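Progress narrative, Year 2. Work on Fe-S protein assembly co-chaperone HscB from Pedobacter hiemivivus advanced from sequence curation to structure prediction during this period.
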Amino acid sequence: MTDYFGFYGLPVSFNPNAAAVKQQFYALSKKYHPDFYINESEEKQAEVLEMSTLNNKAYQVLSDPQKRLHYILELKGQLTEGENYVLPQGFLMEMMDVNEALMDLQFDPDAVRLAALKDEVALIEKGIADEILKLTTSFDRQDAAEQAASLISIKDLYYRNKYLLRIRESINKATASLV
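Result:
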């Protein structure tokens, strides 16, 4: 996996300096602009195009908080393809209640109950977002052992958030069917 932080000469951080990311992107965009290599060999042009593509991808990931979070978890070996992550039982029970309420709403639409469910899910999402923010903000100041522990917690919150995205989609469908 390519280290975008290394490519930009920046330390791995959940909250990198946005101006530094943008500055590196623009500097490398100029350096690897394909138009400047039009008279070079095909091999050199292909190399420059590859670097330009890498620069664009690095910028997309490092400038988007969600993509950056996922990327850092991958970079640090916390996410593996096809991983079957098991969410905590308490969270799953809470989500089972939410899913049951959603199923009830499919058979018995009720705008008031749907609004209450939306609020409940929004509160859970906010709690997760706040906890992620707390962990990612303190990450840069931690030693290696503390960072390792934080990464495990961030990974758990990441998967909870992914689960909630599916719940949010179901809520949006239920909302659309009420209209």
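The chain has two domains: 4-75, 89-178. Residues 102 and 130 are 25 Å apart (CA to CA).
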